[in-house]
């Protein structure tokens, strides 16, 4: 295998895309802003039969996927094969606990947002993760310096589209958009050189990438071999997630209506398009292919707390 087709990367996506709908409802898809190549999508927490939203269920859903997110694909496959051979679940359970141990217990952690980014990138956008920072951490309380994950697809023209991931979950939506796109910018706009922000991740992609198929992995690595002409066939793109507080969810003693929440979320998104356009133009990213995922929440702080609780991690300041 010397090149990769659009279908080759789809087989490494983990999980059932329809399961996403249990926890998150798609409100807006492919919103655009003038003079920019961005595509904006909005998901809200799903209303249940009692008219409630449950961030804790969302956090538990994310917890159940941490091994797929944080453990290299070949190790996960080997564990599944061992469990099937011995009619057990011990090998995959061990990897789940190993994955949990890589997450920080700091109360201001952004790792819940990174998990949301992973879930929506793979199961909604169909962009498989090709590099996860969690496997590279040497200390669970230290954050890896680089992108919040790297995702990929192949265009019909045969270009490898490399999506650098960034996520921010704040109370203030304007601040979340500003800081998320500001963090993403260096990975897209800097020229390729040894001191660029993306260089470390590019080196890791050429060395550590694991697509659970030796031929596919070897073909993928050629795109990051500076002696190969395939290295000129890479397009830098972005996938960004912003979570933020929204006051249109039902309170503790209230019953929400899905249609009312969707209407309010659409109005909220209409007010945020200007923030997105302004920041993309200021960061000189208006011509890059960027997928922006927006998730209004009852509480950004509550989401972080629920995620740590679901992982069984102690809250620390």
Automatic annotation (TrEMBL):
<dbReference type="InterPro" id="IPR014976">
    <property type="entry name" value="AbpA_HamA_C"/>
</dbReference>
<protein>
    <submittedName>
        <fullName>DUF1837 domain-containing protein</fullName>
    </submittedName>
</protein>
<feature type="domain" description="Anti-bacteriophage protein A/HamA C-terminal">
    <location>
        <begin position="26"/>
        <end position="311"/>
    </location>
</feature>
<dbReference type="Pfam" id="PF08878">
    <property type="entry name" value="HamA"/>
</dbReference>
